[in-house]
Amino acid sequence: MKTLTKYHGEIDISQDDIWTFEGGIPGFIEEKQFVLLPLPQVDGFSVLQSIRTQELGFVVSDPFQFFADYDFILNDSIIELLDLKEEKNVKVLSILTVKDPITETTANLQAPLILNTDNQKGKQVILSETDYKTKHLIFTTKQPVKG
Q1: Residues of the chain with pLDDT under 50
Q2: Sign of dihedral through CA atoms 121, 33, 21, 7?
């Protein structure tokens, strides 16, 4: 099927490329299907693009490439909701706020996207008992992750 995207123009996607967020994403509960597209201009960044709304695309990245000690525990209800059976099927992404200059870009570590690569289900999880914030500079090597 063809879909219009925020950063990639019109693209052709297959059903196998679609990630389903059954409860939507906080603030966008009606948006339930997304495709993950690499952002060619910036290595390691992707766009989580809504299938339904062309203008809705979140720039995302693997938080572990910037914060090696990033750590949290998923509660059982999330594991059950996503039908996670093996840790190897878990993909974690952070939504980025891209700024100019790019060195001011931040990652939301308080609300990671949890994806099950086995069944293409996803959920944004809001970590409540944590010191992680919604804005952590990703290009500062000396900044602590927590605090």
Answers
A1: 142-144, 147
A2: positive
